[in-house]
Design goal:
Low-confidence stretches: 16-31
Shape: globular
Structural class: mainly alpha
Mean pLDDT: 87
Radius of gyration: 21 Å
């Protein structure tokens, strides 16, 4: 029996596809994610992957508008570093090259007052090099929150308007790590989606580069941890070490595992503990904000998600008549009626 129109409307919302696609004679082609670098759990709902596809389609659409606008305004400058690296390089060497291009100062990063400030500093250095950095959390409502298990980041390796998307639902330390991980994909010239657990060799390479970038291996010698310490003590020692450097505790544990300090199962147990601690704290913070009816306004949140580089570009191109209000809204990830409120939003810097 053919589905009714009300049923098709529900399916359209559930699968993030236009209603028209359900009337086509053949199923529409799946959106191009580039390469899928994820290692997914065995049981993944179709709707969950449809959510990831919708996110990737949105990012690609925004990037296409940005590139087209830059080309039309004769501002398209090719970035030589896109696709300039190879996986045969030593991770430490590539990490150094990337840091040079984006003018990243590890000391300045670590001197930031909070890890949120450190994330903002890293993002600003990446964007200054010509790369747009988005933070994505959902597709418009908390019902479509993007799970970290399915989507940690996305890199779109374009030589004029490269994009990096980071899951805003992840911890701050993980966001810094993901930015560098995706940055490595750009240097390799690879477009694709990254997940939480990277078992593929390309993901291990990008993880190693990100690890060297934020924590050179020579510093790891300060931590003498093995399975003999036990999970509880290892979590305490690693957490204190990471906090002092504004980096991810899980990343430190991963580097220790990769160096041979302990096996993968021990690493997974440590990572799971850090994850549960983060989720519990985030839940408490959200409940406190709800009870106090406090928090950043919608325009401030959307401005932060889009990032300074996109906001400044849209503001300039809108003023020059190179972008319509509807296209400006698409680039910023908001409706046309909210464009001006996002461009004019002011207030305390939002880092959540």
């Amino acid at each position: 029996m053919a589905p009714t129109r009300p049923m098709l409307v529900k399916m359209s919302k559930q699968y993030r596809r236009s209603l028209l696609s359900f009337y086509l004679s053949t199923p529409p082609r799946q959106g191009d994610r580039g390469q899928d670098f994820r290692t997914l759990p065995a049981a993944i709902a179709i709707t969950d992957n449809a959510l990831v596809d919708a996110v990737v389609r949105d990012i690609r659409a925004r990037q296409s508008l940005v590139r087209a606008t830059l080309e039309e305004e004769d501002e398209a400058e090719k970035l030589a570093f896109i696709g300039s690296a190879r996986t045969t390089e030593q991770p430490s060497v590539l990490a150094y090259r990337i840091a040079e291009i984006i003018k990243f100062d590890l000391g300045a990063y670590r001197r930031c007052r909070t890890i949120g400030d450190a994330v903002a500093y890293l993002r600003s250095q990446i964007e200054a090099a010509g790369i747009f950095v988005l933070f994505v959390d959902n597709l418009g409502s908390h019902h479509t929150e993007i799970p970290v298990d399915l989507f940690r980041g996305f890199a779109l390796a374009d030589d004029v308007a490269p994009f990096i998307a980071v899951n805003a639902n992840d911890s701050k330390g993980a966001q810094s790590f993901t930015m560098i991980h995706e940055l490595t994909h750009l240097w390799l010239g690879l477009t694709g989606v990254s997940g939480r657990d990277g078992e593929r060799e390309i993901e291990k390479f990008c993880n190693d580069v990100a690890g060297e970038f934020l924590l050179p291996s020579v510093e790891l010698q300060q931590l003498e941890i093995s399975e003999a310490n036990g999970i509880e003590e290892a979590v305490h020692l690693i957490g204190a070490f990471a906090h002092a450097r504004n980096i991810s505790s899980t990343m430190v544990a991963y580097k220790l595992h990769r160096s041979g300090a302990f096996n993968f199962a021990f690493y997974q147990a440590i990572a799971g503990t850090f994850r549960q601690t983060f989720l519990s704290q985030r839940g408490r913070d959200r409940e406190l904000a709800r009870q106090a009816e406090s928090g950043p306004t919608y325009p401030i949140i959307r401005r932060h998600r889009a990032g300074p580089a996109l906001v400044q570009l849209v503001d300039r191109m809108l003023g020059a008549g190179a972008l319509t209000t509807s296209k400006a809204g698409k680039v910023l990830g908001v409706s046309a009626k909210n464009v001006q409120s996002v461009l004019q939003a002011t207030g305390p810097r939002f880092s959540a």
